[in-house]
Design a protein that fits this description.
It contains six helices and eight strands; from the N terminus they run E-E-E-E-E-H-H-H-E-E-E-H-H-H. By secondary structure, it is an alpha/beta fold. The strands form two sheets. The chain has a five-stranded mixed beta sheet with strand order 1-2-3-5-4. A three-stranded mixed beta sheet has the order 6-8-7, covered by helices on one side.
């Protein structure tokens, strides 16, 4: 039986097919929909409208148990990795310095590669993120992770070209990768670096 107590600390007696979950934090507000969140420390949060009952919240968690299990497993593996191979966390001062450096460096790389890709672009924003190296909006605005300043220059260039190519193809179809290959023929090697070494850089992000 699944139970959630009224104080917002929830205990789920799960079956073998459910996530191994012991507590949920419920945050009620004037929002209209339910949402489920797994924080980096493994805490599970349900954000709910004030009128939604505890039974409805329990049903919502059960319905999304596969998604929840996947993300809890990801957190577990990350904790194991951190224990086996610890990294030095970045301080907020470190992150600010990286962001300042990124704002000096990245716009120049974007300006260099945009004509080679054959596209224009909008605003450039630098963020500190734990999961994404960059993104491109439908309006052509580009976002880049300040942690790119800890990667080799050729990796930074790959991420810049990757996002610029989304100005032509907003997907990862064969056409998209063909555009990337026109500018960076060895992009697969740089992808491989991001999957291996890049993950260790991401782990240094605090918060």
């Amino acid at each position: 039986m699944n139970t959630i107590n009224p104080r917002g600390n929830s205990s789920l007696n799960t079956s073998s097919s459910d996530p191994d979950l012991s507590a949920i934090r419920i945050i009620r507000s004037s929002r209209r929909t339910l949402s489920l969140q797994v924080k980096n420390d493994g805490q599970v949060i349900v954000r709910a409208p004030r009128h939604v009952t505890l039974q409805e919240i329990a049903a919502f968690v059960r319905k999304n148990s596969a998604w929840l299990h996947k993300h809890l497993e990801k957190v577990r593996k990350e904790k194991e990795l951190n224990a086996a191979s610890p990294v030095q966390p970045l301080t907020m001062d470190d992150i600010q310095k990286l962001a300042d450096e990124a704002l000096r460096v990245i716009p120049g790389r974007v300006a260099h590669f945009a004509p080679l890709v054959g596209v224009t672009y909008g605003r450039i924003t630098v963020r500190n993120q734990r999961t994404r190296w960059g993104s491109c909006s439908s309006k052509g605005n580009l976002n880049f992770n300040c942690l790119l300043m800890l990667a080799p220059p050729d990796i930074l260039d790959y991420v810049v070209v990757h996002e610029l190519c989304h100005r032509k193809e907003m997907n990862h179809s064969p056409k998209f990768w063909a555009e990337v290959a026109k500018v960076i023929p060895d992009y697969k090697e740089r992808q491989k670096w991001l999957r291996t070494e890049g993950s260790n850089i991401m782990r240094r992000m605090t918060g």
